[in-house]
Amino acid sequence: MASFAPLCPQENSLLLERFPSFGLKSTRRVSHVGLDFWFQGHHMVPSALMRSVKPKRFVSTETQTQTGSLQFDTYMAKMAKQVHETLDEAVPLRHPLKIHEAMRYSLLAGGKRVRPILCIASCELVGGDEAAARPIACAIEMIHTMSLIHDDLPCMDDDDFRRGKLTCHKAFGEETAVLAGDALLSLAFEHVATETTSVSSDRVVRAIAILASAVGSDGLAGGQTVDIASEGKIIDLSELEYIHLHKTTLLLEASVVCGVIMGGGHAVDVDRLRKYARYIGLLFQVVDDILDVTKSSEELGKTAGKDLESDKATYPKLMGIEKAKEFANALVAKAHEELSYYNSTKAAPLYQFANYIAQRQN
């Protein structure tokens, strides 16, 4: 049981061990858990990682041969379609009509379905069947959609567009949007409990505990709280790391770890793939920050430049665009490293996921 307990962010954090906090307040050389950091201009850069990363390359292609013949676009489209169909069935239109319309409006608005597909791919990597992971994979997408609905509210990020459409509160009103998000969160756990078959109750409970932890005050909600409190303030990279570890990374991590548990993985699999997930989770946010300042609203399908407008701390703001790109490249390499213990064909989707997240344009 202890092997699958939710990981406390302060314990054995791969971000702290391998990408230590980057404070901006000292001009001296510092050593932290064996990695030395030096000022480069006004920014501190993880030199132990950056030495092996070629400048101005956003994505490493050196490990792409490990992904075999997988046609990743085809794989993603197929898996996203399956997830979409399951979500469609899980939230039928019924009374009260307005809240279910709002839930379906946001849940079925498209999106890349990264989290549920990661969950299923992780399950299959350790020898599990896709059907074992599908209920919790879809539950994770419900929770992710809830977070987007709430994140877009005027009291949060105040966004008008999401995935190229009006945000939920713009389409249905703020009251209904809040309730739709709440209902999706509740339905997510109900869906796991009632739809999961052929998996031991012990493993289902472990997965539910990990997912709940990733969403609560020690996870997504806590990260959002600190994010809101930091607007307009000067924070360093260690504080920014805390925000994104909790607000973004832990739900991606839960997606992978829950898939491993549902697939019958062992403690060593949980440990290795948790590390992989932490790298791609941080990578996801670094890329998101870069896109926010380099792409248009039309390209992103949401309002561009929101972070700059609200004076939020971001990786490009604190590191500079080029250093942020180098950091993303280093994260891809470290994520690939954690997959080297597995059969390359079975691990192909996860190898490609790291590249996909780094290369995404919206």
Automatic annotation (TrEMBL):
Key words of the record: Isoprene biosynthesis, Magnesium, Metal-binding, Transferase
Keyword match Membrane: no
InterPro entries xref list: Isoprenoid_synthase_dom_sf, Polyprenyl_synt, Polyprenyl_synt_CS, Prenyl_diphosphate_synthase
Pathway the protein contributes to: Isoprenoid biosynthesis
Metal-binding keyword on record: yes
Record PROSITE patterns: POLYPRENYL_SYNTHASE_1 (PS00723), POLYPRENYL_SYNTHASE_2 (PS00444)
Needed cofactors: Mg(2+)
GO molecular function, one term: prenyltransferase activity
GO BP annotations, alphabetical order: isoprenoid biosynthetic process
CC annotations in GO: cytoplasm
UniProt cross-references to CDD domains, sorted A to Z: Trans_IPPS_HT
Assigned protein family: Belongs to the FPP/GGPP synthase family.
Name of the protein in question: Geranylgeranyl diphosphate synthase
UniProt lineage: Eukaryota, Viridiplantae, Streptophyta, Embryophyta, Tracheophyta
